Amino acid sequence: MLGINVTQQACGVEAVLLYSSQNYEEVDVTSANWIMLLPIIIQVVKTLLILIPIFHLDVDGQQNLLFISLGGMSLLLAVLGMFLVNINNNMKSSWAVTTCIPLFVFYIASYAFNISLLQL
To answer: Which residue range is the domain that position 10 belongs to?
Structure first.
């Protein structure tokens, strides 16, 4: 149980949420409408994806859902890091910028998929 709690704190979702406005500016999202809309989209997706493991926990098992969640978070964080390095190297290609926002949302969604349910 201690390992799950350490993993939950070390995954960095709270930092992504806390610094989301700076992350949006980094990928050239400067419209006030989008800056107001993106946290709402993130919270709606997060809420909807919390419902999936609630109904599938007995069927699929907690360990399988945990592996899916951690695997998705690892993959999405690695891809997001590559895109942000690409953007920071002054190679602001449009495909990298437009891909970062869904990656932010999917990273937080994969956290909500199971790890957020493991609160003590």
So the answer is: 2-117
In this structure, what CATH number is given to the domain that contains residue 85?
A: 1.20.1250.20
**DSSP of 43-82:** HHHHHHHHHHHHHHHHHH-HHHHHHHHHHHHHHHHHHHHH
The model's pTM is 0.73
pLDDT value of position 115: 64
Q: Do residues 113 and 106 lie in contact, with contact meaning Cβ atoms separated by under 8 Å?
A: no
- The torsion defined by the Cα of 79, 26, 109 and 73, in degrees rounded to 10, comes to 30
One-letter amino acid at 105 equals V
Split into its structural domains, the chain has a count of 1
